[in-house]
């Protein structure tokens, strides 16, 4: 029951990300809004989700992981219901920000609950199942939301998210409470500095494409974010009860495992975000057909985590599986450069399956391996840090990737305004076929760049996860040495 409760919540949270994106056109038409206010339906959620995850994880260790899970899931449900009932875009954006705070607590406390409930092979299976649940939510979100929007309207999307979390809350009585043995006061100053710093950094990245990366507002936000995060590290080093124990970040293998979702953002999430636009705009597919094609990339995310967990329990090295998964991101993105406006699905099926398999192998196994390196007392803090890396990188990388894509398209179509429309899937205007060709060239360059980033990430993470040579030598020496003779 513990696993089922956490899995249902983990399914709903990413569903709220990918599903809301599909509802945006109908939200804009119904509330008579467009542009930045409409886009903040997504941005507000991502901003608070990224900013509050670490705080929620450390809070869970102090006040109780189940208690934090219940409060956070309830906050998510309230935010979703408020979004479903919002009469205007301002209240809708505020409700989404509230849901993002709840999502941060669900992810941080949910992972900590599993880390302290299960051990050994059971923990590996639990985190593999959790990876499948998150992948299912991410993949099913657009399909379910599209059906709900078409049948009942966009408000039904947020109402369904609230209902799913309410079902999960009905089973929390079966979840055991746990907390750290020593419970000092929460580092409120550190929490405020961290939330403000990461929030400013993410906000600067989100607004960069719209305001311009060299605009005073964006530069000020990015500089403020970096400055506050540096101040946060200094505060944590001096704090007797830090929000983030810096020894976690100094653990080379744990930090490497926290970088796995960052590479996954480059190799998988960027494609999940921008490839549908290309398929609909440049390739001329219907949204339904594009969604079907993307199943080639999302289906392995549902099937591979249990396979990976089973392999680990049979003795396969998690390091080997994680290295393979990241290498598949690099190979899949480079291979996907075969795509063009008239390319058949059969031609791109191979690279899409490769990328999806890479995501499926890393989902769950990486998180489980990271949590195995942390003692139970710091489980919430560790999951908070891990998911901060995941959600924060998604918000920043997706914004930067989109800005790079627009810039590359602009250099080929000769107009930034046209490039923005082309990147959004509108390939009308300009010379015949030029927008689609420009979109294709820009996507190819972005894919090669992503592949290069994934290669660097693969090598760096594989090296960091390797056992120290001195430890290996000591183990070999101990195995080869004869048993000591007992002296009488």
Automatic annotation (TrEMBL):
Record's keyword annotation contains Transmembrane helix: yes
SUPFAM superfamilies documented for this protein: MFS general substrate transporter
Organism placement in taxonomy: Bacteria, Bacillati, Actinomycetota, Actinomycetes, Streptosporangiales
InterPro entries assigned: MFS (IPR011701), MFS_dom (IPR020846), MFS_trans_sf (IPR036259), Tet-R_TetA/multi-R_MdtG-like (IPR001958)
Name under which the protein is recorded: MFS transporter
Keywords: Membrane, Signal, Transmembrane, Transmembrane helix
Residues passing through the membrane, by range: 39-57, 69-91, 97-115, 127-150, 156-176, 188-207, 213-234, 254-275, 290-308, 320-339, 345-370, 391-410, 445-466
Ranges in coiled-coil conformation: none
Molecular functions per Gene Ontology: transmembrane transporter activity
Gene Ontology cellular-component annotations: plasma membrane
Signal peptide as annotated in the record: 1-23
Main localisation: membrane
Source species of the chain: Actinomadura litoris
Residue ranges occupied by any Major facilitator superfamily (MFS) profile domain in the UniProt entry: 2-469
Superkingdom per UniProt: Bacteria
